[in-house]
Amino acid sequence: SFPGGRRDPADGDAVATALRETREELGVAVAPSSVWGQLRTLPDRHGMTVAPVVANLGPLEALTLNPNPDEVEEVFTLPLAHLLREENQGYTNFRTASGYGYTLPVFLNGPHKVWGLTAIVTELTLELLVPGRY
Hints:
By secondary structure, this protein is of the alpha+beta class. Helices cover 24% and strands 22% of the residues. A hairpin with a 5-residue loop joins strand 5 and strand 6 (101-109).
């Protein structure tokens, strides 16, 4: 999943929360000037509201990640070209106890499967970055 967490009282807004969480979880300081914007808010499965923030981190090769082992088990990246290949895209159907069904996107990458809220945010980001290709 992407870095994230609850808004602290000291956070001015959702962007400040996202930048703080990225620093705390991945050890990456993102400048506010690198933020492109905020996607629409989304509900998570616990009824909380998630406010995805999109930022340009520059070339990944230039980043030094220092993941917090208490919060991050593993870090991996997916190139844009990989995400855009149809063979790496899919959907998963879910059914609730009440019989309500819904479909969510899934992105495949070897042993890694991007699904749930992370896949929804990935899909929304792809729709913005490469309209007409995704």
